[in-house]
């Protein structure tokens, strides 16, 4: 596809809209690197539920559960955000580029080699349809 061409794939409820710096395709990110207020509320409800559920067993040691739930929620949110950063069209990863330009260049090169290998192996021949009654 040509640069700046709108891609058919759309992300619902996206947080960021931008153009890929390498291929100039339209991009959107669904996750933010920080916890949103709705996610904080959900984690608070989960931690309270777990606290009241385990209070007879853990007693005052159960006060550590909200900290564990919030840290686990933050780590999962951060992992989903980092997984979404690389461009699906050209393989450019802005986080890697910010840390090491040479490594980012290698990642793009590997992405394109994998794309070429996939395109070579995915050429399949459809079987000819047999006429009805035979």
Listing every helix as H and every strand as E from the N terminus to the C terminus, the arrangement reads EEHHHH
Report the mean per-residue pLDDT as an integer: 84
Q: Supply Rg.
A: 23 Å
What level of helicity do the residues show? 40-55%
Q: What general form does the structure show?
A: elongated
- The computed structural class is mainly alpha
What's the domain count? 2
Note the total helix count. Answer: 4
Q: How many strands, which pairing sense, and closed or not: the largest β-sheet?
A: 2 strands, antiparallel
Distance between the termini: 43 Å
Strands of the widest sheet, in order across it, are 1-2
Q: Tell how many strands the DSSP assignment holds.
A: 2
The low-confidence runs, each spanning 5 or more residues with pLDDT under 50, are none
Strand content: 5-15%
């Amino acid at each position: 596809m040509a640069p700046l061409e709108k891609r058919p794939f759309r992300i619902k409820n996206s947080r960021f809209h931008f153009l890929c710096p390498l291929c100039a395709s339209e991009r959107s990110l669904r996750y933010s690197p920080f916890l949103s207020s709705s996610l904080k509320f959900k984690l608070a409800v989960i931690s309270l539920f777990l606290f009241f559920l385990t209070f007879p067993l853990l007693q005052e040691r159960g006060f550590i559960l909200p900290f564990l739930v919030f840290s686990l929620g933050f780590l999962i949110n951060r992992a989903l955000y980092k997984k979404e950063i690389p461009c699906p069209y050209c393989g450019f990863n802005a986080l890697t580029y910010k840390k090491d330009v040479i490594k980012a260049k290698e990642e793009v090169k590997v992405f394109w080699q994998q794309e070429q290998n996939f395109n070579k192996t995915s050429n399949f021949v459809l079987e000819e349809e047999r006429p009805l009654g035979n």
